[in-house]
Amino acid sequence: MNPALVALLRCPETLRPVRVVTPAELAGFNARIAGGKLAARSGKARSTPLENALLREDGHLLFPVESDIPIMLLEEALVVD
Asked: What is the C-alpha to C-alpha distance for residues 56 and 33, in angstroms, rounded to an integer?
């Protein structure tokens, strides 16, 4: 992802900054998805692995990135807690 774009993005709920997850974090989140242990805020379980993601500064919400497009919708955000 373009670092300049990431620097401009904020969580739509808290306005906190987000950052691109590390490869190790991405692997961990994808393992949780495969195990059915990571769901969207809407309650819908995610079934496909993440290509990339943005993590809110406090680490509580994960915004998927699909085809280099960040999905900054709260109902699509994955709850990390």
From this structure: 18
Q: How far apart are CA 59 and CA 74, in angstroms?
A: 14
Other Cβ atoms less than 10 A from the Cβ of 22: the count is 10
Q: pTM to 2 decimals?
A: 0.94
Which amino acid belongs to residue 64?
Answer: P
Q: How do the pLDDT tens digits run along the chain, 81 residues long?
A: 899 999 999 999 999 999 999 999 999 999 999 999 999 999 999 999 999 999 999 999 999 999 999 999 999 999 998
The kind and range of the H/E element at 63 are strand 61-66
3-class state of residue 18 by DSSP: strand
68: alpha, beta or left, given left = phi > 0 and alpha = psi -120 to 50?
A: left
Please report, for the chain, the start and end positions of each structural domain, with discontinuous segments joined by +: 3-79
